[in-house]
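Protein record

Derive tokens from sequence
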Amino acid sequence: YQLACVKRGAEGAVMVLDGIEYRSIAAPVDERDPTGAGDAFDGVLLGWLASGRAPEEALDAACRAGALVAGSGSTWPEGAA
């Protein structure tokens, strides 16, 4: 595969894209409900990559989106868009 990503929860994520490894550390949050956090992560990561953003920026944004959802208790928290 050209892209592989492992989500590590509170420890962020690791992504390999075209043979280059990228790591991002998640911001600490008080987890309320993780429902939808993975979907938010995936959507933001793929959307940012598809729009031509740098891989490290996309991974950081994806980690922020997942943390935002997990800490909010909502699958579409304020500020997610």
